[in-house]
Design brief:
Elements lengths: L1 H7 L4 H18 L6 H8 L3 H6 L2 H23 L5 H27 L3 H24 L2
Amino acid sequence: MGQVSMYLFEVNVFAVLLSAIGSFVLGGVWYSPLMFQQAWLEGAGLTELDLKNANHKMIFLGAFIFCLLASAGVALAVGTSPSALDTMLYGMGIGVVFVGTSFGVSYLFEQRPLKLFLVNAGYHTLQFTLIGFVVGSFN
């Protein structure tokens, strides 16, 4: 427990905030009409009308808080010494090994389409890779 509390004071808050903003913006682009919005809508069984009727303030606030928590978690996990490349690869590993495989199991049982899995797991893999890069760049 002592080592965890020591890391809490060594986390670069600016890096955590910047990586959270970066991963939030990445999600905005990833799920936009510029990239994978249509594939995501189809795979999730949603329509553009569903998007228009959504509570955007709560969704975006919640998404940013989750991005902030993910960024803080990576920063705590890597500590203060790894390089940007090491933390980027660490983030990629989190995306592929933990998030991707967890989604995979759920999506198999929920019988969700492969297209949705690829869109969502792809985003989170890039998200954690970006978080790792940003956090590692400030070590």
